[in-house]
Specification:
The protein is built from nine helices and eight strands. The protein is of the alpha/beta class. An eight-stranded parallel beta sheet has the order 1-8-7-6-5-4-3-2. α5 links the parallel β4 and β5. Helix content is 34%, strand content 18%. The chain is globular, with a radius of gyration of 17 Å. It has a single domain, classed as TIM Barrel. Bound molecules: D-xylitol-5-phosphate and zinc ion.
């Protein structure tokens, strides 16, 4: 009798996928600010501008006071852009209840909120058992101490620099202190996780977040603003290259 291969942690490490050849940063366009009626074109423009990944903001109207989209839309994005790295940011209650749906939809990374699960270690292990990269996100008022039990198993930590729920908000400057602290800790102890920042990232704030230690920069309105996607993406990229 043939035994089914057990899906375990993804073969490649996340760093080589998001930050290949020692790149210092990666921009993650959030389609929350895209024009959903022309989504394929909008994502196509980010790819043309050089994007390797797309950030997918999944909201359920309970964990955050907003509703977005679910696995069926993500599946369509995967079908049309099979080479893009899909970064799913789950702002939902009971995120593990949706793990199978998003795994089937083809995402590469599932990031859940520490505030949404009773046991972060168990959650990270379940995401890994599904064969995906695992991320944990914390809201602006949550301290990085909650991540302590799992620092050596995480692929990514997402620091929210605004209260989750809506695009177009202003970055909360104190959240950069958490980025700084985490980066120092990671570099000192050699933890594997990459640091992502999300909320209010634009050409002015991205360089500040980079000097604090962030490596993956989620940007919704700064990329999709006025539909000038290629120009916007390149301007953000330049601001980080010159940081
Ligand atoms: C907010 C979302 C963000 C949002 C960022 O809860 O997690 O990813 O799209 O939008 P901007 O870049 O406009 O702040
Ligand atoms: Zn997000």
């Amino acid at each position: 009798m043939k035994t089914k291969p057990v899906k375990s942690s993804p073969a490649k490490d996340i760093r080589s996928q998001l930050l290949p050849k020692g790149s210092k940063f990666c921009i993650a366009p959030s389609i929350l600010s895209a024009d959903f009626a022309t989504l394929k074109d909008d994502i196509g423009k980010t790819v043309k501008a050089g994007s390797r990944m797309i950030h997918l903001d999944i909201m359920d109207g309970h964990f955050v006071p907003n509703l977005t989209f679910g696995a069926p839309l993500v599946k369509c994005v995967q079908k049309h852009f099979p080479k893009l790295f899909l970064d799913a940011h789950l702002m939902v209650e009971n995120p593990l209840g949706y793990l199978e749906d998003f795994t089937k939809a083809g995402v590469h990374l599932v990031t859940i909120h520490s505030e949404a699960v009773p046991n972060v270690k168990r959650a990270v292990r379940l995401i890994h058992a599904a064969g995906l990269f695992a991320g944990i996100s914390i809201k602006p008022k949550t301290s990085i101490g909650v991540l302590e039990p799992i620092l050596n198993e995480l692929d990514l930590i997402l620091i929210m620099s605004v209260e989750p729920g809506f695009g177009g908000q202003k970055l909360i400057p104190t959240t950069l202190n958490k980025v700084r602290e985490l980066r120092l800790l990671r570099d000192k102890k050699g933890y594997p996780f990459v640091i992502e920042i999300d909320g209010g990232i634009d050409t002015k704030t991205a360089p500040l977040a980079m000097s604090a230690g962030a490596e993956v920069f989620v940007a919704g309105s700064a990329v999709f603003r006025e539909g000038k996607i290629i120009q916007n993406f390149r301007a953000l990229e330049r601001s980080l290259e010159n940081a």
